[in-house]
Amino acid sequence: MSRPQLLPGPLSPRRKVPKTITRPSYALLGEPGPTHPPRARTAEELANMRVASDIASEALAAAAAAIAPGVTTDELDRIAHEVMVDRGAYPSTLNYRGYPKSTCISINEVICHGIPDLQTELFEGDILTIDVTAYYGGVHGDLNQTFAVGEIDQHSRDLMAATRRALEVGIEAIRPGGQVRDIGRAIEKFVRGRYGIVHQFGGHGIGPDFHDGLHVQHNYDRRGTERFFPGQTLTVEPMLTLGSAEARIWESDGWTAVTVDGSRCAQEEHTLLVTEDGAEVLTTHVPV
Ligand code: MF3
Ligand code: CO
Ligand code: CO
Known about the structure:
Layout: H1 43-65, H2 73-86, E1 90-91, E2 104-107, E3 110-112, E4 127-136, E5 139-148, H3 154-172, H4 181-191, E6 196-197, E7 203-204, E8 215-216, E9 233-236, E10 239-241, E11 247-249, E12 257-259, E13 265-267, E14 270-274, E15 279-281
Antiparallel strand pairs: 1-4, 2-4, 3-12, 4-5, 6-10, 7-8, 9-14, 10-13, 11-12, 14-15
The chain binds 2-amino-4-trifluoromethylsulfanyl-butyric acid and cobalt (II) ion (CO) (2 copies).
């Protein structure tokens, strides 16, 4: 069977988080509050970010292991949710600005923020990005990765490989004293116009805040003149497309971002620490 059109589907009931798990401030009312400027992490924050990143990575791997035709996105969300709460973490996306689920799952033309539901099944030939963020010890760890369902076409394989490389190239551009725009410049140089680079969503400072005041463009934007400093933590999460890089958001849910021309999108994200001579990757992808 070929893939039917992607549509919003019914959601499962809100998943529970044991009372003993420490929640972020927005968990109750959905509002993260004022945005803080980036600052160096303390040793304790950093130790907890390593654990949060590890938990998010384990949850991503567990969900990815269940990918198969016929599996619903809600089932993948359930698996990731259970790993996080079993390890004592709060699934960061749950009620973040009202977002209803514990992961984002974005299939084919969905760029990001796809909401797992009970009706959307995976089909052979799909690509999907699973994005998992865990909150542990007062800090967040955030990663995503794009996977194939069975055999996929050559264009999608190339797109996924280029997106993996774009993340590496972006990470390699980070230097203390360097500028945030170095990341987008390096990615643009690598992409050479072969793919669209999504510019309406970006990477971000991360730590006690899910998204702090640092914004990371994946295309070159000369306004990104902030300088990196050791101890800073951020994500790089390029989204590349096979066609238009322009995004539009489904009116029906206010979240799901799709390419305006229906072209496919891949994404790869890591949480990073700026070191004395570059960047250390805190999250772990599933080996490909
Ligand atoms: N994890 C996503 C990111 O990479 C953010 C998801 S926010 C949500 O930044 F509200 F959509 F869940
Ligand atoms: Co992120
Ligand atoms: Co993410």
